[in-house]
Amino acid sequence: MARDLESMLDAMLDGVVLLDARGEVESLNSEACRILETSTEAAVGRPIEDLFGEDQSTAKLSRAVLADGRAVIEREHAVEGRQGDDLVIDVSASPLFDGDELDGVALLLRDCAIQKSLRDVVSQREALASFGCIAAGIAHEIKNPLGGIRGAAEILGARASDDKSRSAAELIVREVDRIALLVDDFMVFTPGEDLRVAPVNIHRVLDGVLAVTAHEKIGANVEVERVFDPSIPDLIADADRLSQVFLNLVRNALQAMEGEGGKIVITTRMAFDRHLSLPHGQLGPSLIVELADTGPGIEAAVLDEVATPFFTTRPEGTGLGLAVARHWITRHDGTLRLESTPGVGTTVRIALPLSRPK
Ligand SMILES: Nc1ncnc2c1ncn2[C@@H]1O[C@H](COP(=O)(O)OP(=O)(O)O)[C@@H](O)[C@H]1O
Ligand SMILES: [Mg+2]
User: pTM for this one?
Assistant: First the structure.
């Protein structure tokens, strides 16, 4: 099978830089360009030192390999970004030989943050999948007898001769209905339920959600600002599921600010990103939706847990809002992340692929 070597290198999640015997750049792939904030045009022909800023440790490592011909692996080198956003990379440098002669170096640069995100995405997926199987099983077993209990309680209520018995029967009916709603909520996790996809205008979805919450009591005292990029194209998605996702998130933000008041800023923009939830982290255009609130924030110790099913700090909460939201975003091959600073606020960032591969 013949494959274009260049496109293969560009598809890799690792940065690759090839140096010639003088330590000058011969070629580099797209991930290396991203990590080093350079382009092929700017980098090829330049000495390796030019690719790095103040921290020359990776350049020195390459020179050492050119000098003694031995491969080296080093973890956690810093690469300074131009906007102060430093990356941490693992570096491996291997000598290249032409016959017996040392002819260059192949540098492999691995962005540690991407590796961590990939691991997070995989473990979230696995957790949701196994939870989904359990939830589906339990939901089924609970739902069946509920109908019988409700019917029997109604009969008892109708036949009751005193008020106390009647109100006890009504209580049973009400509580049964509450359980049924909860069960419906976690039936959502049933694996394999299909998405009904069609072209979706994300701003219409968000406006629809805000129209619903505008009428809710919890929304009083909260200002909502929309920072929408009107050039965003339709995405192929399930509009009902996305509405449910954003409704859960907006309600959470409103509940977090209830009483105190505050502000929600909803931002939409496009990014050219790795789709970490797709196999091999394909590159492609993404839609980013950010919901930032000025609520009390979430303590770092529980930030990783708030999206697990049944985690709640609210007396009347079910702990399913974020879990359901993440479930549907994951089903759309997207990601949902939370950032929070206690005392400042919480931001939920959702990335959805704009071009869905077959
Ligand atoms: N915007 C937010 N600000 C502060 N805390 C939040 C926010 N969103 C979610 N949380 C925390 O995460 C928990 C879980 O949220 P969720 O899954 O929607 O369940 P529920 O809303 O039923 O509690 C909440 O109880 C709350 O502690
Ligand atoms: Mg909630």
Answer: 0.66
